[in-house]
Amino acid sequence: MTGEEMEALRARTVPDIVAEGLHVLFCGINPGLTTARLGHHFAHPGNRFWPVLHASGFTPRRLKPSEQHELLSYGLGITNISPRPTARADELTPEEYRTGGRVLAEKVARLRPGWLAVVGVTAYRAAFGDRRARTGPQEAAIGGARVWVLPNPSGLNAHWTLETMAEEYGRLRAAALDGPS
């Protein structure tokens, strides 16, 4: 890919998959370059979001990134902390995280999902200034929604296997879909 092509990708945005009143609004960090090129969330072949979503019971089958709009029929959606595509999330500045957190809180208040699920504890900490946050449900609400921090499904996150991620996502699924609302 030429430098010009890379810069063109970095200028693209990937539209949110959202609606009012979702059970869970998943929030990624920001689009990767493959996602920007294809226009579908979590589109990199090494990203485990779609397999984990199915393995955890959120979807009855493994969706392809190109089928992302089907999430709405399950009461699920996707957004990002930052809209700016990068090769790696560590290219985002601290200000982009903070600004993204403020914009996300406004979006959540407007859309009123039952749960906001942020994929990546480091991103959550940076966006919301909570250095003590851990994976799992959080005490603080954002925009009126309960918050669950999930493991980042990126293939770069070697600390979590597909199975252990599916367990954690499954805990959220049980709380969001099986538990009291």
TrEMBL record:
UniProt domain Uracil-DNA glycosylase-like: residue ranges: 15-178
Signal peptide limits: none
Top EC class of this enzyme: hydrolase
The UniProt record lists the keyword Protein transport: no
Listed SMART domains: UDG, UreE_C
InterPro entries, sorted: MUG/TDG, Uracil-DNA_glycosylase-like, Uracil-DNA_glycosylase-like_sf
Any one Pfam family match given in the protein's UniProt record, by short name: UDG
EC number of this enzyme: 3.2.2.28
UniProt keyword terms in alphabetical order: DNA damage, DNA repair, Glycosidase, Hydrolase
GO molecular function, one term: hydrolase activity, acting on glycosyl bonds
Domain of life where this protein originates: Bacteria
Protein's name according to its UniProt entry: G/U mismatch-specific DNA glycosylase
Species of provenance: Streptomyces chitinivorans
Lineage: Bacteria, Bacillati, Actinomycetota, Actinomycetes, Kitasatosporales
Encoding gene per record: mug
